[in-house]
Design a protein that fits this description.
With about 210 residues, the protein is mainly α. About 75% of the residues lie in helices and about 0% in strands. It has eight helices and no strands. The longest helix is centred in the middle third of the chain and has 31 residues, at about 105-135.
Length: about 210
């Protein structure tokens, strides 16, 4: 029993990790609330999630706030670009849904829509994590995120499945997430932590040591 509560025991390491993820989640929710700061908040979320467990990790708060400040401008631009693209996809959906066209043309337009949306979603899984890990220009961040999402397709699909599963559970079984409470306490940080492990393994193939 004494060994169970030893700071180096598996139980205590697990509980410490859960506490770190909860703190990370609360920081993300607080800094993303203004909405316009969602970009730098997502960047800081992935930066901290990918560093959890590193030998030189010196705490959630310091890492998160440092990344939030350093990536504020470009992270906000990325967030605005992604928000604009989401709006474009929304408008595209409404237009196609209301066009008076033949079924064949409609089918082609829907196929094009879903294929493009799928590529957009896969790229989105990388954009903010790439911004957190590498010091590159905006165009390079977007292009490399797009290329990586295809070059590492199995990992991309695994990360997409993690996000999709969390969304489906929330929509169809809201009681399992406490009707949203679990998202406020743990959800965003937990997803970033799980996907961060995959992103870390991918990014190490391009740069063994972080450039930030």
């Amino acid at each position: 029993m004494r060994n169970l509560f030893n700071p180096d025991s598996a139980l205590m390491r697990f509980l410490n990790r859960v506490a770190d993820v909860m703190i990370l989640n609360l920081l993300f929710v607080a800094t993303a609330l203004p909405v316009v700061t969602l970009g730098p908040a997502l960047t800081a979320l992935f930066y901290t999630a990918m560093k959890l467990g590193d030998a030189d990790f010196d705490g959630v708060g310091g890492n998160y706030l440092r990344s939030f400040r350093e990536n504020f401008r470009q992270g906000m631009l990325l967030g605005l670009i992604w928000a604009a693209l989401v709006a474009v996809f929304g408008a595209w959906y409404v237009v196609v849904d209301n066009l008076n066209i033949s079924q064949v043309v409609r089918l082609v337009l829907w196929a094009l829509y879903y294929l493009t949306a799928f590529r957009f979603a896969l790229t989105a899984l990388y954009v903010f994590a790439y911004q957190a890990r590498f010091d590159d220009r905006l165009a390079v961040v977007l292009n490399n995120s797009r290329l990586m999402s295809l070059a590492h397709l199995p990992s991309s699909l695994a990360m997409a499945a993690v996000v999709a599963l969390a969304v489906l559970i929330t929509v169809f079984y809201p009681q399992l997430v406490g009707y949203g409470v679990l998202w406020l306490l743990l959800g965003f940080g937990a997803i970033a932590h799980v996907n961060g492990a995959l992103l870390n393994s991918i990014f190490r193939t391009y740069a063994p040591a972080p450039t930030r």
